[in-house]
Amino acid sequence: MSELKEIFASYKKLSFTDRIVFYTTLSSNINVHDDNLQDFLVKTRIAGGNACIYCEGSYVVKNGKHKDGVQRFLCRDCKKSFIPSSCSITSGTRKNLSVWAQYLKCMSDKKTLKETAEECSISVTTAFYWRHKILDALQEVTDRVYLDGVVESDETFFNVSYKGNHKKSRRFIMPRKAHKRGNDIHKKGLSSEKVCVPCAVDVEGITFARPVKLGKVSTECLIDVFSGMVSPSAVLCTDKERAYRILARNEDIRLIQTGTDKRTTSGDGITYGIQCINAYHRLLKNFIDRFHGVSTKHLEHYIIWNNLITNNKRSKTEIISLMFVQILRRRLTVHNSDISARPPLSFVT
Ligand SMILES: [Zn+2]
Hints:
Elements: H1 2-13, H2 16-26, H3 34-44, E1 60-65, E2 71-75, E3 81-82, H4 97-108, H5 113-120, H6 124-143, E4 150-159, E5 194-202, E6 207-209, E7 213-214, H7 219-226, E8 235-238, H8 242-251, E9 254-257, E10 263-265, E11 271-273, H9 275-289, H10 299-309, H11 316-329, H12 336-340
Parallel strand pairs: 4-8, 8-9
Antiparallel strand pairs: 1-2, 2-3, 4-5, 5-6, 5-7, 10-11
Helix pairs in contact: 2-11, 4-5, 4-11, 5-6, 6-10, 7-8
Bound molecules: zinc ion.
């Protein structure tokens, strides 16, 4: 019994993130019983069990239960009423958190909308909006990325896709004749129909990539994507592209440039190359191909998704936990109409 007490005492000292990792690690099936999940949320999200989600005031009282049994709270300070998952992307969806957990599991398995909708018993349309709400909430994880050690960088390209802009929009005018399928682009070279995505991977396997412009890579876009994201103590490895030289000079980072598929041994005896970033490009392309033509306006979301689940050394449980923590912790409201209204080429200014 004393051992159990010790475990409880240790548990109370864990951070919010660690508690979720602990919780999801113990649950062999993430689709946990709802009461447990609600209880868990009350104890973790509402710090100490009685702090207001809106004003963090401590004068919070229980205020009856929802029809589905979820406990409501009332803050005597700001007079607002809330449930443990209020003010997150999950609120207002009338679906239980266990369904969201199941959804995240599907995302970690790279499932399509149809497969996910079936597994979570939701419609394909709901599955679509949830995917983008979750990825909105996960954007913050990407923004915190910091690359260090040997950092390989190179850009890759995706065909522009205006999928998802045509119907129901009175404002969208197709800027070119529609292609029958995404791949019949005949223009040679890096035309204005290719989206440039500068990518980087560091020695720990941490990756970062962002669609930034149409056509060829430029110094301005590299600075826009990587400024402040690479440690000054890193060694940047790229191909012979001039724009990277200016980036490295600008950011005061040591640069080693090498031919594609070649390795360069520097004065310190270490061999550098760009094989890892090439491998990353292949993985990213494979991932995007699974979804049969990702709309350019959502491309960044798919890259965030890929980077979270494909290119790191975390276990699947840790990945799901990380995503779960993030979507429950972030105070973020996204409406379906916000997602539909996104511009076709968000990065073009
Ligand atoms: Zn309050």
